[in-house]
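Rather than argue in generalities, we reproduce a single protein record, letters for residues, whole numbers for local backbone shapes, just as it appears below:
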Amino acid sequence: MIMKQCCRSCLFFVILLWFAGHGGVYARQKEQTKVDSLLKELPHQKEDSNKVNLLSALAYYYYLIDPDAGIKYGLQGLELAEKIEFKRVDWLCNNIASDYKMKPDYPNALNYFFKEITIAEELNDSVCFADAYYSVGDTYYYLGDFAKALEVNFKALKLYERIGDKDRIGDLFNNIAVDYQKQSPPHYPEALSWFYKCIKINNEIDNESSIALAYSGIAEVYMSEHNYAAASNYLDTSLKIAEKCGDGHTKAWDLCDFGICYLSMVEDTSFKYPHNGIIPMGRNALLHAAIHYLERALDTSFILHKIDVIQLCYKHLAEAYKLAGDYKNSLAAFENYTINKDSIFSRGNHDTIIKMEMDLKYEQATMETQKKAELRLQKQRNLSYMGLAGVIMLLGFSFFIVKERRKSEKLLLNILPSEVANELKAKGRSDAKLFDHVTVMFTDFVNFTQAGEHMSPNELVNELHTCFKNFDEITRKYGIEKIKTIGDAYLAVAGLPSPDPLHAENVVRAAKEINAFMQDRVAKHGNSTFQIRIGVHSGSVVAGIVGINKFAYDIWGDTVNTAARMEQNSEAGKINISQTTYDLVKGQIACTYRGEIDAKGKGQLKMYYVG
């Protein structure tokens, strides 16, 4: 067994190097021929769109073997495309983004995925739009920003539903379920609901691999809730489907999860044998089963180069062997796990690893003779306590720094859109930008002055806070950027800083929810709250940061002024939209034509009431 662990250790290290970008033999053999062929053609190409396509292909095929080279050729392709005014470079941006993602360099990956979205908007290509949003959601997932991943995945889902791409819809159902599952705290009911939707749609298109993946996700939810019987049943279903359709990746995860499930039963002090239909077995049998499945998962993962599963298997094998009293194999498994210790540290497990290492070395010492064990134990305790004290101080200081940094970043993100905040942190400034396709919403409380006469200052401010807080939640739901409040007015915009093909529809639907919320509040509270009127207009705006002290993100342009005129010409409990916005939402949202109405400084404008 030790020899087997040592062999695996060497292979594990090779795989780590392969994934770190040093070049794997397998990948080079598979892709190098294509790359060499393209490189031979490159010097003979004219400065035209064919050369752009060739450079894009190089960016694509270098993805696994040398992402840096892929980025280099991809950027050359973009430079040439700009020179010859070739616009169809959405796929080139996607290839460059994928190379950055492989490095991994997620901020730059997102930057080029967003470029792809902008190009898709200019080309009015719904499929390109949807694919780009799908990639952005996937990138946010790997960044660990599951809330943002969820938001983007919902945008992609709307687009794929319009296109009717059931394969991608099924994939997104699974991604959305996992995003809910990974939230802090986890949203397990929502995760289960989306996993079941994933199973339903993939049954319709006979996609067994995605069905197996969804069953595996359901099992992990039940395992997190200590419902080992349900987890075991779903894992068994997933494993059978994965083996049937030859899905080795899901099979590797299922085997690993089976091992973790059995190990969890051993470690769970509330678990009773037998339990909820699981095959009756005692503690030793459960440990044997855990080790058996983790070993199988390890073998499968080495074949498939699944480094994440390999790390997880070694981590839990170390614990399983320790509980079984097999300290030699426990330490060997743990040493394999810590080969890539730096990457594990980055996931926040520093204190856990130190504790495991100290425990394992302590228990290894007990295998020596009693006298030697006592001497070594005392020495180790003294060193450990000193080391632990230093670690605790370091962790405490690190925790303080991270906590304060998160506070600052949270405050910045509360003031600015995330893309603008990232630009400000990276460059120390943020450039003003023109956005051609946005929709602006203004709201205003009609009877604000009269209502204020019947309310104390505290009551007035509290009511405003309650209303605007709910407006914030509704706009966030639709991916709309709140710009500011001006007294009792509320200004928001969709379509920036990230393009949104549904900007008009999203704003009007949000306006309907805001209006319904206020009408319900008026019915309940009467003169203690406000009547609202809303105006909406679509067009182009300039957006950027103004000021140095107490700076703010703001928008300017005729579109903003026209949206204000729409609000001023609305009525209490009504949503007034312009002809431009109506043209974007007709067929999706019912509207009533009001005719041409004189708007201050604008002349006669066609207006519509929503509903």
